[in-house]
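haha ok so turns out i had the wrong file open the whole time. this is the CORRECT one, sorry everyone. sequence first:
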Amino acid sequence: MAEIGEIGDTKTPQDDSREKVSGAEPYVTHKHYSQDDGYTNIFEDTYKGKTLKEVYDIIVRNECRFNYHLREKLPSGNTDYKSDERDENVEVTYRFKTRKHLSIELNYPGGVTTVEIAESPGKTVSKITYSAD
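then structure:
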């Protein structure tokens, strides 16, 4: 299995758009992959010069399919809870694989969303995987 930030043989990039900030080099690059005949969608963003906490805050602030289930502040350690926002009954699990590698799993009726955030020198990669049951 490919490590976060690497491209595995079974993945085909479908989108590699780039955001520019005031004409400078892009600080974030986006990639989208599909697997399992489209039942699994993976969105990978590489943030130049950002920390794990800064990328977590970006995910929480942005309007996405699941951000209302996440804690507003990044937990300092592993945690589990049930979120019944919008009557979805989602089980949320935060696991720190290392101090600079966080995995968040959201178990929905009908699927799982996994968020991996890994910080390395000079960049942080977030990988959001939407998987149907």
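The longest helix spans residues 52-61.
again sry for the mixup
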